[in-house]
């Protein structure tokens, strides 16, 4: 006989029954006053930043579209940063045609490799930290003989490249050289033997000692 506190058959807990699945955590709360659209854009921006950061980490030490070890430096000609303005300031990256573009006020990578091994630094002009490679090349220029130092700043303001340097500094106004060389880390330095055969490329800051060691190996 059942009393008032007894459970009916349908109310009794079956000891063999599985426990209920834990509830999923609720989505992050929208900040007070933020519209649904603004909140959505903020989440998307965070996700994009995470993807860009991950790609930047993965790119370190990884060859990109530029010439890898054993390949050859891609021909290009750009105006020197110190040269007077020209009617056509864009880089010439048209293969053998680019090799023939020479003269006063022009930096031609083919011409440089004809005269000896080359260490070619490439960087975005607007990145102050990357542009500091110019100061570094100034510091080590007298410590290694037999290697030609070359630097090219991509896009940005040409005036930021001007200065007294013991090596040629070119300006890649339209970013064509950066595209051909797959610029992904900065500064990017490509070390090539006489004639243009690539030995290696670095895509991160080097200490002066690390840079000098690579230059001396290239000079041997």
Name the average pLDDT.
Answer: 80
CATH class of the largest domain: Alpha Beta
Kindly state the percentage of residues in helix: 25-40%
Radius of gyration (Å):
29 Å
Low-confidence stretches: 1-18, 37-64
Order of helices and strands: HEHEHEHHEEHEEH
Side by side, the strands of the main sheet go 5-4-3-6-7
Structural class: alpha/beta
Let me know the CATH homologous superfamily of the largest domain.
Glutaredoxin
Query: What overall form do the CA principal axes indicate?
Result: globular
Strand content: 15-25%
CATH topology of the largest domain: Glutaredoxin
According to DSSP, the number of beta strands is: 7
Largest sheet: 5 strands, mixed
Into how many domains do the coordinates divide? 2
Amino- and carboxy-terminal Cα gap: 103 Å
How large is the count of helical segments? 7
* CATH architecture assignment of the largest domain: 3-Layer(aba) Sandwich
SSE blueprint:
Elements: H1 36-59, E1 77-79, H2 95-99, E2 106-108, H3 109-115, E3 118-124, H4 128-131, H5 133-140, E4 148-154, E5 169-172, H6 176-180, E6 188-192, E7 198-202, H7 208-219
Parallel strand pairs: 3-4, 4-5
Antiparallel strand pairs: 1-2, 3-6, 6-7
